[in-house]
Design brief:
The protein has seven helices and two strands. By secondary structure, the chain is an all-alpha fold. Strands 1-2 form a two-stranded antiparallel ribbon. Helix 2 (about 30-50) runs parallel beside helix 6 (about 120-140) and helix 4 (about 70-100) runs antiparallel to helix 6. The longest helix is centred in the middle third of the chain and has 33 residues, at about 70-100. The two termini are about 35 Å apart.
Amino acid sequence: FIACGVCIVGFSVSVLCDVITREIGHPWLWLQQATTGFFIHGSFLGMALAARRNEHMYLAEIVQTMSGNKRRNLEVFSRLVVLVVALCMVVFGYQNFLLDMGSFRMPSLIPLGYYSISVPISGALIALFQVEQIVNGLKNGFPVPLDSRQESSDA
């Protein structure tokens, strides 16, 4: 996700510029809004990226001790839990977005919905990635957790 990296760089640059312009006595008020936008969008895109790479709440210690149907069932169950949460993010995030389009941030009067739209987008991406992982896992087997691959190569 290049967009996630762009958001992190944008956040860092906007904070730096905000500090510099305040120190020289000529603050740019819109920089705080840009910083907030970069932070929010970067955070939620990062969440989707972590879900895609399976680097979120993964039960590696439990899964690496299992095999066969027990492992497959736990893998599917954990991804279904994340899928349900992602679908809640889509539904309730979209409702929040619609409400936020009627609220505005001062002084630029930018609708707050421009910030909150990242929640349902992130939820949709996470849901897509979970479905992809379930389908691929059932079809080709779930990948071995990274921790157990490193331990087996060390032995």
